[in-house]
Design a protein that fits this description.
About 15% of the residues lie in helices and about 50% in strands. By secondary structure, it is of the alpha+beta class. The longest helix has 20 residues, at about 1-20. Residues about 1-25 have low confidence and may be disordered.
């Protein structure tokens, strides 16, 4: 009987866990509010670490050679602005995140040490986030991506599912899992 109880608990946790992890799928996006921005800053702040093939903020995008450790540090400066610093591989990035009341979106703009510029807009999708990103490479080429950003604040994990056209310097689909090191 004890084994049956353990098995039932395991099956239920796997079944319902996957339902909750995908609760953003199929939900419409909506315009962001200043209140959403406050929630976004709370979810994003702190030091994060990930083992990833590539990140959208530098020329590693589309890398398939092996994983690199990246760090991302987000600091709430005030109720209107968050600054970010990222590093990993051979590059670093500086960015600023703010709420744009005209676009009704949360905007993050960053510049990498290799000259890559990225601008992302985040809007709510259910309890999670949908992100569209335009990247300009140092050679002037442009890459467009969209992503689902899924925060699990209780466990300090953020999962980002990035989708692109799969062309050189882009990705078809990539999943990055970031772990909060501290707030």
């Amino acid at each position: 009987m004890k084994h049956l109880s353990i098995l039932l608990t395991l099956v239920l946790s796997v079944t319902f866990g996957s339902v909750f992890a995908d609760d953003h799928k199929g939900q419409p996006v909506r315009p962001a509010t200043k209140e959403d921005f406050a929630r976004f800053m709370k979810l994003e702040q702190g030091m994060w670490r990930a083992e990833v093939l590539s990140v959208i903020s530098d020329n590693s995008l589309g890398n398939k050679d092996g994983k690199t450790t990246y760090y991302w540090h987000s600091v709430r400066q005030n109720s209107s602005c968050m600054t970010t610093l990222g590093s990993g591989g051979k590059n670093s990035i500086r960015g600023v995140t703010f709420y744009d009341p005209i676009a009704k979106a949360i905007v993050r703009t960053g510049v990498s040490s290799d000259g890559t510029i990225n601008k992302s807009t985040h809007v709510p999708r259910g309890k999670q986030w949908y992100r569209e990103t335009v990247i300009t490479k140092p050679d002037g080429s442009v890459i467009k991506l969209n992503s689902d950003v899924i925060h699990d604040d209780a466990n300090g994990v953020t999962t980002i599912i990035i989708r692109g056209d799969g062309s050189k310097g882009s990705v078809k689909e990539q999943k990055n899992v970031w772990y909060r090191q501290h707030e």
